[in-house]
Design a protein that fits this description.
The chain contains 27 helices and five strands. 47% of the residues are buried. The termini are far apart. By secondary structure, it is mainly alpha-helical. The longest helix is centred in the last third of the chain and has 21 residues.
Length: 531
Amino acid sequence: MEAELGMNELEVWKRAEQLLSQRQIEAARLQYATLRDSAELAIAARMRLSLIAGAQGNFRGAVDEVVDAVARVGKPADPHALSMLFKRLMAVGEHELGLSLARNPALQQCDDIEPLAEVGKLLSDHGYSAEALDLLGRAQAMGLDSAPLHFLVGTCRMRLGQTDAAERDIERGIARDPGFSPNHWQLSKLRRQNAGSNHVDRLRQTLLRTTQPMDRALLGYALFKELDELGDYAGAWDAWATAAATMKAAVGYRPQRDFEVLKQLLIEDQESVAAPSRQPVDDGPTPVFIVGLPRSGTTLLERMLGQHSQLTVGGELGDLVMQLRYVANKPGLANIDPELAATLRNVDHQEWGRRYVEHVAWRSDGKAFLTDKLPTNFRLIGAIRRALPQARIIHMAREPVAACFSNLRECFFGGAYGYSNDCTDMADYYRAYVGMMSQWEQRYPGQVHRVRYEDLVAATRETLAGVLDHCGLPWEDACLDNQGAGDVVATASAAQVREPIHTRSVAHWRHYESQLSPLIDRLGDVLSAGA
């Protein structure tokens, strides 16, 4: 490498690396900046600059540097450089560019397991299951054999509706390492269990050998699901209570932080409500936001809407928050924290809306409407009205106890939705959510279309007709079929949502009515008011 580089550039790079190792960040940044246009070092230098910008609180700089680095990718490209860039692009919300790198022939055809596995895992983590399978399958064919790999491959196949193949992959993972708990958890979700086919004994035996809290939590949630489907409700509840308490302790959920964010968002919205109206973003698809709590029927509704000829399914997108971070110049993840919420009063909503549409347009396949069903976007309804006045907003509601129980029974892998691991936390969060939705309905009458899950499954045609009318879309009979819409389901409902529409889940919580009495008592008056 040294023979190919000008010695001045190489010396600058070494000096920058030395300064960075000494934590002289600003001095290192200035050195890297001189290499932005280097024929050999531009990509590496811009990657360093992106990371430094993020660490210094400059999110725009972090995004701009890595986006500019992509333009420096040569032909043929280095698979390791592609992997490095891909990881950074996904971290800052630049998914379209990231996917372009994942599809680069140099990566697709490389004979190095490491970049294949790294990019494949991140693709799976972000819900790009078909693309992930291509790379993970290639790594597998080259000899990679591990329980985590089989978990990723099986998960991708499950999301794609390939249930039998998913089961085979996950069982291979369990045979490879019986102690890798995610495989047991995912296997329990693939099918409804019955007396002649279940994994209860194996789950119990594995629990006896397992000591790590997160592993015990995953195994416990899997055991709950299987016992529940076998009708052993007392045993199922015992398994859930232990798993949920373990998960809560491992995650370290702080309820007050959630409540502070909800309160702050309402205050910031009230301060901004008199702001001048914005012009709709004319280019790109019209966003259709489906909001509510997780497990409230949002995936089912989205899949049915996805059968409409003028609408494309987007899934749970992080773009709304990531583009807010860019406009507000606040680094972080694709969720709202108090620091980001505080920027809403002064942020350029029009620029935010424009960047959002630009970043999701590629998903729409040229159709006029695109869904975004990230449930937590219910927090941002006021801001959506200003940033994207052309957007349609649908609130998916569900009977209070059923909604809470549906959240409680689901193990949100990675600790998301921390309130769902405790009956008291769940009831308190539900009350806050209902209060916030009531405020939005008062402030923006007629702009949020409310759909009850119970109506969607019991009076499907009439309910869907109302949704389509709210969106400005004509009726199409194809929307009555939920089983063929959208090839990929990357949510907790991946297996369940492919079943024919049924009312089985509407009152399933009544099997646990006595155990749920603390939650029911704490819900109090919202039981009569509903969601």
